[in-house]
């Protein structure tokens, strides 16, 4: 196991939402490119902060006292890092943060649960369902990174507020590529998959209860259109000169008659197809 890491500590200040002239001091823990931040709940005028040194300017009693406090925080976090080294535990910014805040370092994390779910459940899920879980996982990781300034979180820290904040994140996220913004039913599918993952955590006794207990998953009723017999026959009899379009049409017709989703139909192999038994009555 590696015993050396690119471990770093940096004190920064973030402006107060209610007062742009004052800020709150944070300590940022960085290891191997990953980071976690801890609010020290210390407020001071931004003009007194020395960003280069990560300290308070001035020689006043308050400035000296705060700088001593920051030095003490640096020592304690370094001790947490060394303690994890001695235990040969996995060293991450979140592990150091948890140890510093008094959390039990052996707690299970959200990414650990997601990986266990995918490892144990993917063999029995269809390709399309596996892809959906991967998309949900990516949304969760993006939420942690953008809204919680971390790459992971202990399961014990996931509460109803976390679920509500994730819901709001999905409703307001603006896709950067060709994807369309999430509508309610698509969002609810992600929340439904997230709930199943956390329920697995409860069964594993990694969680005492699911934070989804107070969250309602509500789908909007959608009236789906359908093809008439004439429309289906028209598509079935249509011939395309382009082979790719002809194949797509054949797959669509196949899906209509079998009930398979398009993504499942296109993933079929010849070994999964067999000649069925005719249900027509035999001639006398």
Q: How many structural domains are formed by the residues?
A: 3
Total number of strands = 5
The termini sit apart by 77 Å
CATH fold name of the largest domain: DNA polymerase, domain 1
Tell me the radius of gyration.
27 Å
Order of the strands making up the biggest sheet: 1-2-3
Q: Tell the overall outline.
A: elongated
Structural class: alpha+beta
Count of DSSP helices?
Answer: 9
Q: What is the helix/strand order?
A: EEEEEHHHHHHHHH
Name of the level-1 CATH class of the largest domain? Mainly Alpha
Q: Portion of residues in helices?
A: 40-55%
Low-confidence stretches: none
**Biggest beta sheet summary:** 3 strands, antiparallel
- In round numbers, the mean pLDDT is 86
Strand content: 5-15%
| CATH architectural designation of the largest domain | Orthogonal Bundle
Describe this structure in words.
With 284 residues, the chain is an alpha+beta fold. The protein folds into three domains: 8-101, no CATH class; 110-214, DNA polymerase, domain 1, CATH 1.10.150; 229-272, no CATH class. It has nine helices and five strands, in the order E-E-E-E-E-H-H-H-H-H-H-H-H-H. A hairpin with a 6-residue loop joins strand 1 and strand 2 (22-31). Helix 1 packs across helix 2 and helix 4 (127-147) packs across helix 6 (184-203). The longest helix has 27 residues, at 61-87.
């Amino acid at each position: 196991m590696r015993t050396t890491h690119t471990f770093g500590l940096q004190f920064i200040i973030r402006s107060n939402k209610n007062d742009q002239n004052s800020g709150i001091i944070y300590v940022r823990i960085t290891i191997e490119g990953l980071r976690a931040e801890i609010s020290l709940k210390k407020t001071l005028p931004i003009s007194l902060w020395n960003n280069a040194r990560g300290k308070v300017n001035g020689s006043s009693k308050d400035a000296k006292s705060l700088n001593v406090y920051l030095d003490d925080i640096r020592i304690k976090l370094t001790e947490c890092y060394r303690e994890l080294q001695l235990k040969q535990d996995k060293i991450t910014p979140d592990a150091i943060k948890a140890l510093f805040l008094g959390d039990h370092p052996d707690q299970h994390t959200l990414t650990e649960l997601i990986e266990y779910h995918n490892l144990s459940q993917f063999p029995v899920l269809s390709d399309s369902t596996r892809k959906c879980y991967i998309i949900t996982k990516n949304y969760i990781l993006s939420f942690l990174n953008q809204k919680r300034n971390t790459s992971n979180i202990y399961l014990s820290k996931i509460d109803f507020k976390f679920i509500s904040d994730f819901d709001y994140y999905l409703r307001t996220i603006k896709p950067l590529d060709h994807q369309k913004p999430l509508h309610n039913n698509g969002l609810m599918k992600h929340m439904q998959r997230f709930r199943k993952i956390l329920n697995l955590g409860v069964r594993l006794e990694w969680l005492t209860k699911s934070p989804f207990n107070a969250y309602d998953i509500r789908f909007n009723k959608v009236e789906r259109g359908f093809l008439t017999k004439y429309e289906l026959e028209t598509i079935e009899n249509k011939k395309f000169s382009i082979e790719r379009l002809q194949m797509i049409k054949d797959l669509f017709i196949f899906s209509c008659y079998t009930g398979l989703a398009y993504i499942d139909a296109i993933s079929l192999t010849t070994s999964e197809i067999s000649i069925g038994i005719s249900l027509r009555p035999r001639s006398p």
